[in-house]
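WARN no homologs supplied; continuing
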Amino acid sequence: MNKSLLVCAAAVMISALTASRAAEPAKGAMINLSCLEALVTIDQAGLSGVFSFIAEKDSAAAFADLVVHNGKALKRYVGKLEKDFKGAGGVTGWDHDVLVFALQLYSSPLAETLEKPHAKLMTKMTDMSMAPTMSLEQVTARRKKS
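OK structure emitted
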């Protein structure tokens, strides 16, 4: 009898603990610096708070979704990557992931709902998605040298 009472008490405590964790509001985390730089590039630095609630592993896909829905932002972002590519010889791993996700979106059924970028911009995106990847620190250091 005592063992079953202890088991029931433990189960109640575990469920109460789990429920209290589930009721806690989501907390923002650190934002990837490449993501922050990209948001500044497209004049959307105010979204950095929103991106702090997106898991880092998903932030590149979220940013890609943001820019494919805004042609002007996409053009600015690709322009920034082009400068990095020319100055540093590559792009960050995070930027590479953004390009890959964006290109996937443009080749998916969702593409019918998006404004298709000019062929020249798509070519730049494709070329830079195959560029060597490096850390943001490496890109920044090489940017300063050029």
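The beta strands are 91-92, 133-134.
OK
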